[in-house]
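pipeline stage [seq->struct] | target=Poly-gamma-glutamate synthesis protein (Capsule biosynthesis protein) | organism=Streptomyces griseoviridis | residues=347
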Amino acid sequence: MITRSRQVALALTVVLAAGAACQAHGHEPPPAGRPAPDTGAFTLVASGDVLPHGSVVERARFDAGGTGLDFRPMLAGIAPVVSRADLALCHLETGDGAAFPPEMAEGLAATGYDGCSTASTASAPTLDALDRAGVRHAGAARTEEEARTVTVLRAGPADVAHLACSGALDARRVLADARAAREAGADVVVVSLRWGTPWQEEPDAGQRALAGALTAARTAGRPDIDLVLGTRAHVPQPYEKVNGTWVLYGLGDQIAGETTNDRGAADPRAHQSTLGRFTFAPPARPGGRWEVTRAEFVPQLYDIDAGRVVNLNRALAQGAEVRAVRDRVRDVVLARGAAADGLAMGE
């Protein structure tokens, strides 16, 4: 087991998240008299951009009764999925000048999120608010020491590294940090990348090339990276298994206000997203790879009028319009053949 005192020098901020939160919101208990099988596996969920636009904040003010802000009702629709995971990761996008309300960190924590990538322009107050709420963060740092510190928490029986980066992405630098985290004892390495072309559903050439380089890298026969999570595109993008590793090119915006696309038009795709859910099983031999034994995506919609994140598979009773949006998100996610590699749509 890795302890908090073990540190390695990294060029990127690395946060290894999960652990203690599993005790607070782990899997539902089995029926009485039926002990849960101890497989050693853990489940990780990851969702896309959370943007504190003005209309989002105003909705939280309304939900708080006009005094303060309450983001918990906004996220209640997806909380059952998030809270049952052993490790739940989100992405905060604060690079457009929007102020980050501390209550948003509290809402994320109450929903069950353990950590967030902050590889945009997150400020020190944002990181302070996440710390107070108990939500770990990767990608931004307040000090050089923090940028060079590996923090490790548990996800079930595993130590999971969460790296996050943006800007001019260099495969060599990302891989150096991934290998350093592995050398420090991480069982699973997850990398969040702020990349791609906004408003483009198909991953661009840069995404595809970087995904290929990162997933092809191995040390002693073991992949250096176990899962790639993409943000920034503002629309859902496909999932794809590349060199045996799942790449989620773009999760979309989980929460965002009225948004205009690259043509200056309001774009409903900005409120469509997915939540990835992956079950990792322990290796058959010591030092081997933790394998993904189940891969799923949950289609989501941020209902901008109601100010609610909607699990589209659980809202189908609301009618044909909801089903059409669900099917559209599904088609985008599966556009690069992920179904043939076992990706399924979950609830």
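stage status: PASS
auto-comment: Residues 320-333 form the longest helix (14 residues). DSSP finds ten helices and 19 strands in the chain.
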